[in-house]
Amino acid sequence: MKIFLSRNNLLVIVFFLAGINFALVPLYEFQSQQNEKLIAKSRQLEKLQLLLEGKDLLESDAYAVNEIINEATSRFYADSGTVKLDIQKQCEKVFDQNAVVMNSFDWVSDTGEVVRTLRASVRFSGKTRDVITAFWDIARFSNAVKIVSWSQRIQNNQRDSMGSSKGDLVIEFYAVKPQAAALSFNARESE
Amino acid sequence: MSIFFAENFVDKFGKTVRRFLMRRVGFWSSEMYDFTPDARPDSTLKLAKNSQSKQILIIARDHYHETVRDYAVGDAKDLKHILSQQLTDSPYVGDRYTVIDRLNQSSHRVTSWIFNESVFENLPSRPWLILPESVCVRELFSSKAVLTNRLKRSVLTVDGSSGLFSTVFSPADEIQSVQYVQTITGVDSKHWLKVDAEDFSQHMCAGLIEALLKYPLRFLVPFKFNSAQFFPWKTSIKLISAIFTVYTIGVFLYLSLSLNLVDYRLSELKAPAQQSVALRRIISDKMQVLEAYNKIFIDISPNWIFWDLFLDLKKQGVQLTRVNGNDQVIVIYGLAKRASEVLGSLSVDARVASAEYVNSVREKGGSEQFSIKILLKNELTKPENVYFLQNNLTSDQSAISQESPTK
């Protein structure tokens, strides 16, 4: 034991430990870093390969989504400078055709980014049966329209007559820029 | 041309390393023997010129005691504890080397080897690993019985249902020994695989590698402190340094080459992958747009159905005086002979989810004045076209399909 723990042997141990600390440990750390880098890059490579394998599916999906969006977009009003005027005209036409008097038409809100949401408040009066047909016609609009709320007072609703109605309703219209979706798809595709 | 040189270099390098390592391996049978590293026509054992360099030894069957015993102990920890307490019945005194194999849930098979102490006494330096000859033979051959001839003696190794059995005999005792072994093992000598002395060295090398791969530390010779002063420190340090250098260079080369290869593949795939990434981004953006659209379509509650109800109530003689609607909730005010009949008919109507009085019913001019809150059914108020996102996607991103328009 004494021979083993001699000054020379202890010096060797010190150098050995110093060698471990200043050479082996940094070398091990460097190799670990390199190994981690290799693992990360290999994973990245695997992901890229998977991505490339699924490119055809992605293309078909992108095409399918685009088709659906185009179709869905056709159910909204085209967001142009005259959209409010167009909607107002359409409403006036419906009320006119059903002989319902439109006492007022006011835009109450205009919000939204992807889809522009336009709300209008309409005051009306006319025969109840005409008001009903007007409501049905609004529901038959080819564009998406939501009747948010309505209130109407019905007068002289007798057994042989439905009388007359007077009230107001809030309608919500939706407008999107029709070419925006298709354009962005084509633009990115050509990148 | 460069590939040829590279192959040549790798081949030469491999041979050098193999030769270097084989110099550290020996076969001990009263004397130290060398193994010939390459497959040669004559690879019989040769007496070692330098016995001190041997760190891994295969000990001949003559110098150890081998036992196989089955223990009805299910837990390996318990078994190890039992073995540590158990006295050996070996004629030799020394460290016991064991291999434990699980037979079933409740029992283990223990194969033990105890080496003759004279082996260590006669060795010039304490080895790192010692392996029994029978273990190397068993690990190499799948045959149940192997008869090996070396150094004018024969060793029979049988790996039967009762575990490893091996014995050594001289040619003079062969007839008796063969009959004895046949009786014990039940394996006819016709089925024995025979390894000649010329092939012994080569086969033992292969068996040693197999055994070391299967039991890398099982046959490690325990370090004895009092042997430190006799330990070949210089040789060991040289060997460790050589192994460490080879390992470090190997790892460095492997990591560098792999990283470069992966980088090259990544740069190759980057451009086509960017298109796919762009496509994924487009799909993701579109999905968000589509979700916004869907939200609008789902939120729309066309209340034209109410006017059908209105006309039906009119036919029943109900006079409605006021209607207030807010999405699917509609409050109607009116006069009827019996308000309860109106509420009853509305409650059972297929178009109505629920109906209830808002205020108390009052008598007015021979009729009853009422106010009823109606909630229309969801499925009836679903818009004509809703574009749904589905989970069964064609790509990993998502797929979209359109549900057929329902009213």
Shape of chain B: elongated
Return residue spans of chain B where pLDDT drops below 50 for at least 5 consecutive residues. Answer: 388-407
Number of separate strands of chain A: 5
Structural class of chain A: alpha+beta
Total strand segments of chain B: 19
Instruction: Give me the side-by-side strand order of the main sheet of chain B.
Output: 3-2-1-4-8
Distance between the first and last residues' Cα of chain A: 76 Å
Distinct helical segment count of chain A: 5
What's the tally of helices of chain B? 9
Task: Describe the structure concisely for a colleague.
The complex is a heterodimer of chains A (191) and B (407). By secondary structure, chain A is of the alpha+beta class.
Description:
The complex is a heterodimer of chains A (191) and B (407). With 191 residues, chain A is an alpha+beta fold. Helix content of chain A is 54%, strand content 26%. Chain A has a domain of 100 residues: Ribosomal protein S6/Translation elongation factor EF1B (Alpha-Beta Plaits, 2-Layer Sandwich). In chain A, strands 1, 2, 3, 4 and 5 form a five-stranded mixed sheet that branches. The C terminus of chain A is likely disordered. Chain B folds into three domains: 209 residues, no CATH class; 68 residues; 78 residues, Alpha-Beta Complex (H-NOX domain). In chain B, the strands form five sheets. In chain B, strands 3-2-1-4-8 form a five-stranded mixed sheet. In chain B, strands 13, 14, 15, 16 and 17 form a five-stranded antiparallel sheet that branches. In chain B, strands 11-10-9-12 form a four-stranded mixed sheet, with helices on both faces. The C terminus of chain B is likely disordered. Chains A and B meet through helix 1, helix 2, helix 4, strand 4 and helix 5 of A and helix 7, helix 8, strand 13 and strand 19 of B.
Walk me through the topology.
The complex is a heterodimer of chains A (191) and B (407).
Chain A (H helix, E strand, L loop, with lengths): L6 H47 L1 H19 L3 E2 L4 H15 L3 E11 L4 E12 H12 L5 E11 L8 E13 L3 H10 L2
Parallel strand pairs in A: 1-5
Antiparallel strand pairs in A: 2-3, 3-5, 4-5
Chain B lengths: L1 H21 L2 E5 L1 E4 L11 E2 L8 E4 L4 E8 L4 H10 L10 E9 L2 E9 L1 H6 L6 E4 H8 L4 E6 L2 E8 L2 E7 L4 H12 L7 E3 L1 H18 L18 H67 L4 H12 L3 E8 L2 E8 L2 H9 L4 E6 L4 E3 L2 E10 L12 E2 L8 E2 L7
Parallel strand pairs in B: 1-4, 4-8, 9-12
Antiparallel strand pairs in B: 1-2, 2-3, 5-7, 6-7, 9-10, 10-11, 13-14, 14-17, 15-17, 16-17, 18-19
